[in-house]
Amino acid sequence: MDIPSDNPITITGVKLGEQLFFDPILSADSSMSCGSCHFSNRGFTDNLPVSRGIHGKSGVRSSMSLINIGYMNTGLFWDGRVMHLEDQALLPVSDSSELAHQWSRVELDLRKDAKYRQAFSDAFGIRDTASLTRDLVVKAIAQYERSLVSSGNSRYDRFRAGTLELTPDEQMGYDLFFDISPEVKDAECGNCHNAPLFTTNEFVNNGVQSAKTLADFKDPGRGAITGNRYDNGKFRIPTLRNITLTAPYMHDGRFTTLEEVIDHYNEGGQISPNIHSLVRPLGLTEKEKGQLLAFLRTLTDED
Length: 303
What we know:
The chain is mainly alpha-helical and 303 residues long. It is built from ten helices and two strands.
């Protein structure tokens, strides 16, 4: 994990970050927090097609899982608009579709709170109220988010550690997922969702949007950030850890079940100019699709 030299992880920092993460003081009407879109028992997502901010205002994309988010080092959000968690944490607070608050007001509210003044002093060594700034708020939240690391107790992890045997269906799903044997079909999953993170941290067009030209994508995704038209329709590859807990799926939440996701890839996705070369008709049988699903369930880590 890449940890900024000016924001090392500390026990007091993580505790403060956790408190801030779940505190509605960060929203304009004190009704929502970061945790309102990232529930720990839902793989740190909200199980909505697109997230909703204060007053029920809908955003445009699905809430991403924060599991192992500290390892995502090629850009955050679906489009990779920022590189570091400290920068990421700044944006939802002031976004009109999310917490819709003003950072200057957040700073004032936190400075008035004696418990927060003490917590920031403990975590960062500040000695005066004026030093309690948004920069320290997002540093604390980033520390907490970097602590959201898989425990290693999923069935998959215990299988890899040699302490558990997969069922025959799980094993066949594993073989399909990672293309273990030339005698087994390649489901093309492991190319983009490689272990141990089950993402390669890349941005790809996985065929969820149909487009005749590179200018026809409803949501240009990565292309809107880079200005490169060949990046249109590309989105960050999400982790598959705890994937059973994070429905619905894709950047716009278009698929409600993993069965639908598997069908999408089995059918080869929707046609567009820059679709990933490995998104192709797979020819998986119903039994093989069920085995693939059985393996995906081994990635659930309730700890």
